[in-house]
């Protein structure tokens, strides 16, 4: 089913966006509404809880942390000057093709006034090469051609040395087969096979692949290809994005918590779930430190580590094969977010966000005071600036203090005016809880449905069969989890939208199809080289 009467998803510009069919049913649950536990208060859990509560289901949402938002949460800190500020796990880009995440946020802000657009997505390499997406056309395939034409990283000799036949899988990515074709090889090996120009590869592909918190040598090429489709060749929403105008709690999660409360949801933050057991007379028992409660259905919306832990303590949940699948989930490498409150301003010509490559562990720099109200007010009052640094996929054995110093040193290389700036305050946030999508791991990832029809899974670790990733995969899986339960109760679910599932260009699709039947594909392990039809 493609499109809608209005021509695409609400708020989107892509008329070819895909609507996933929803089973017909009543608008709300009728008499004696079922009671559902949603375990996890990140994007996936909030999406599932919102849809269920709006349709009359009684929802109890458990979150182990004192706050909602999961990996997009924020919490208060006090700076040395006494200022109360908000710390978080770092910058997040709200891309325009995040249809389902945006639909969730529209519950509390229909016009999405809590978001503001950044004017560019600039990339900079330590060699001096720079790329930008501001002038690149949005519509495929002109965006790819425009990027190659405008980018200084694509030289004629580089283009002539590429093996276009090896790149054919990127021209017609379909979620029904991309993992079959490419999951057995790493993103790094795939780019080697294509002969992608080294400089462009660093700026275009590695910046994206590291947003999965994974070294390209360990990331499945299928995930990279899917990502390339979602953000580039499969969508005409473009690569520009929005960011919240205020810290995550104020802009996003406190309003949504109020929306859930108005729909009768019981929010139990700072309440980790210990186990989930089938009830003796049907339903399930959810156990936490305060006791056990009975529920008609359960949504498991935790990160990989949390899901593994709860399932390991719940020996009668699911079946042996499903439990083994959950046990095989892996967590990506640690990452670091360093936020600096500087006494001096950053050069006003600097972009609000900059992706970096070749600067050691530094992956991007955000001048937070350019768009976030709280940081901007502090900067205006003090004459300083608030800067955030990210290091994705840090080697687990790396010394943390050395890495923190290294990021600040690299900031001085990227923005030399910060070298003499006094650091009023610094916060270094280390985490290691993002899902890893390793080579050959796709078939082992859980789906929304489980062997128990009253238990569903949501989160960015879930295999949805749809072209979605990162925050949008979390929101989409939350909607799908809620819809799966609502089907059992005869209630119509939430509309779900995605970018088109397949190449947009008839010519490019024909080229990709021509290369598939006789061409050799990736096979074997991550070290196997690709020999394409070209």
UniProtKB/TrEMBL annotation:
<dbReference type="InterPro" id="IPR050464">
    <property type="entry name" value="Zeta_carotene_desat/Oxidored"/>
</dbReference>
<protein>
    <submittedName>
        <fullName>FAD-dependent oxidoreductase</fullName>
    </submittedName>
</protein>
<dbReference type="InterPro" id="IPR002937">
    <property type="entry name" value="Amino_oxidase"/>
</dbReference>
<dbReference type="InterPro" id="IPR036188">
    <property type="entry name" value="FAD/NAD-bd_sf"/>
</dbReference>
<feature type="compositionally biased region" description="Gly residues">
    <location>
        <begin position="1"/>
        <end position="11"/>
    </location>
</feature>
<feature type="domain" description="Amine oxidase">
    <location>
        <begin position="43"/>
        <end position="485"/>
    </location>
</feature>
<dbReference type="Pfam" id="PF01593">
    <property type="entry name" value="Amino_oxidase"/>
</dbReference>
<dbReference type="GO" id="GO:0016491">
    <property type="term" value="F:oxidoreductase activity"/>
</dbReference>
<feature type="region of interest" description="Disordered">
    <location>
        <begin position="1"/>
        <end position="33"/>
    </location>
</feature>
């Amino acid at each position: 089913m493609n499109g809608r009467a209005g021509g695409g998803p609400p708020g989107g510009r892509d008329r070819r966006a895909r609507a996933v069919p929803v089973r017909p049913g009543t608008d709300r649950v009728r008499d004696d509404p079922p009671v559902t536990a949603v375990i996890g208060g990140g994007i996936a859990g909030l999406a599932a809880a919102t849809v269920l509560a709006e349709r009359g289901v009684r929802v109890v949402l458990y979150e182990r942390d004192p706050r909602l938002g999961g990996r997009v949460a924020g919490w208060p800190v006090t700076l040395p000057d006494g200022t109360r500020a908000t710390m978080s796990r770092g910058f997040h880009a709200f891309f325009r093709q995040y249809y389902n995440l945006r639909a969730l946020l529209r519950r509390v802000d229909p016009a999405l006034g809590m978001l503001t657009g950044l004017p560019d997505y600039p990339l900079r390499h330590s060699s001096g090469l720079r790329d930008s997406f501001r002038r690149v056309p949005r519509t495929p395939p002109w965006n790819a051609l425009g990027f190659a034409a405008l980018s200084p990283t694509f030289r004629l000799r580089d283009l002539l040395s590429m093996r276009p036949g090896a790149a054919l899988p990127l021209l017609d990515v379909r979620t029904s087969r991309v993992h079959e074709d490419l999951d057995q090889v790493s993103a790094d090996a795939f780019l080697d096979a294509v002969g992608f120009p080294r400089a462009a590869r660093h700026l275009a592909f590695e910046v994206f692949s590291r947003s999965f918190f994974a070294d390209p040598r360990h990331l499945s090429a299928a995930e990279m290809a899917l990502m390339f489709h979602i953000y580039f060749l499969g969508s005409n929403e473009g690569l520009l994005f929005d960011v919240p105008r205020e810290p995550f709690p104020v802009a996003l999660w406190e309003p949504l918590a109020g929306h859930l409360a108005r729909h009768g949801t019981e929010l139990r933050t700072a309440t980790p779930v210990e186990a989930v057991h089938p009830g003796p007379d049907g339903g399930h028992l959810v156990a936490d430190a305060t006791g056990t409660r009975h529920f008609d259905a359960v949504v498991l919306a935790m990160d990989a580590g949390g899901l593994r832990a709860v399932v390991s303590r719940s020996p009668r949940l699911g079946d042996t094969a499903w439990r083994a699948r959950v046990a095989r989930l892996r967590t990506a490498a640690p990452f670091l977010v360093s936020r600096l409150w500087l006494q001096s301003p950053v050069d006003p010509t600097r972009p609000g966000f900059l992706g970096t490559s070749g600067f050691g562990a530094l992956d991007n720099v955000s001048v937070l005071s350019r768009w976030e109200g709280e940081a901007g007010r502090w900067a205006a009052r003090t004459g300083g600036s608030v800067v955030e640094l990210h290091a994705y996929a840090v080697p687990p054995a790396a010394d943390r203090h050395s890495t923190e110093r290294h990021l600040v040193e690299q900031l001085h290389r990227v923005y030399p005016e910060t070298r003499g700036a006094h650091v009023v305050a610094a916060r270094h946030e280390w985490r290691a809880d993002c899902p890893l999508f390793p080579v050959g791991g796709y078939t082992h990832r859980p789906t929304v449905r489980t062997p128990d029809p009253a238990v569903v899974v949501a989160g960015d670790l879930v295999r949805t069969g749809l072209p979605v990733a990162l925050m949008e995969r979390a929101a989409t899986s939350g909607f799908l989890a809620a819809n799966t339960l609502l089907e059992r109760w005869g209630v119509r679910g939430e509309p779900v939208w995605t970018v088109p599932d397949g190449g947009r260009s008839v010519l490019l699709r024909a080229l990709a199809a021509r290369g598939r039947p006789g061409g050799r594909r990736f096979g074997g392990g991550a070290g196997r080289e690709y020999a394409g039809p070209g």
